[in-house]
Amino acid sequence: MTQVYLAEYEHFLIEEKRASANTLASYIRDVAKFLAYAPSKLSKINTDTVSAYLEALQEEGKSSATQTRAIASIRSFFHYMMARGAIDHDPTKGFTTIPSKKKLPQILTNKEVDLLLSQPERNTLKGYRDRAMLELLYATGMRVSELISLDINHINTEIGFVRIVSSKKERIVPLYPAAVSALNEYIEQARRILTANHMESALFLNLSGDRMTRQGFWKIIKAYQESAGIKKEITPHTLRHSFAAHLLQNGADLRSIQEMLGHADISSTQVYAMLLQQNLKNTYNKFHPRA
């Protein structure tokens, strides 16, 4: 349905706004990229969705100008959707220009991670698959786009490694035993049943036997956040942030974390050191008797 809306919006820009070719191309590109990231239903998109998307753009190394342009494009689209009655709210409200200073990401505590990862049922096809996806995200810190792009031959559970392939390069990240176990259970108990085509290469499949989508995973993680009763807003990036922060908190060096996350620049990884410093300061201010 979002593709229909996008086509209508493009027609609106051409016929009513008389947008130039360059403006049309940039607006449609920005909106299409955002809709590919966001939940499939427009009514489910909120300010948290937009914030998480901007966070993802920032991690990709996009400039403040690029992020600001993306906001303008997305806002224009949602204003059009409101005008035609497709939605009744503007999820871009409150977003203007993007400051160059990075916003510190929100992470889960160790207990919250354990609670979230314990939500999938261990006796259903969906439960086996969802547990494996969540464990793999927290084990490796990979992006959701990388998770759903994994093929079956990208993992080696015998030695406990996964090969993560992105558009720029690939990297090898180790897996902890619980993640290996979850993957083996999924492959043996669920994937072979979900696979309608024996030639299917995708590691994670939906219940129709097709490759898992970003929108599909978004729904999954939101459902488990609700069932776990976690009040923090969990986005597809939350386990990635938690992975990095928890490693750093337990003594891992920034260069190793940078390599596992696939950051091209160490400055993208340093945000987690800033996060831990801020958390330490908050703890000090809260508990020191003279703070």
In short:
This protein is mainly α and 291 residues long. The chain has helices spanning 2-15, 21-37, 47-59, 64-83, 110-117, 125-140, 144-149, 177-194, 214-228, 238-249, 254-261, 266-287, and strands at residues 155-156, 161-165, 170-174.
Give average pLDDT, whole number: 87
Largest sheet, strands/sense/barrel: 3 strands, antiparallel
Q: Per CATH, what is the topology of the largest domain?
A: hpI Integrase, Chain A
CA-based gyration radius = 20 Å
Please give the alpha-carbon distance between the first and last residues.
54 Å
Structural class by helix and strand composition: mainly alpha
What's the β-strand tally? 3
The level 1 CATH classification of the largest domain is Mainly Alpha
Spatial arrangement of strands, main beta sheet = 1-2-3
SSE order, one letter for each helix or strand: HHHHHHHEEEHHHHH
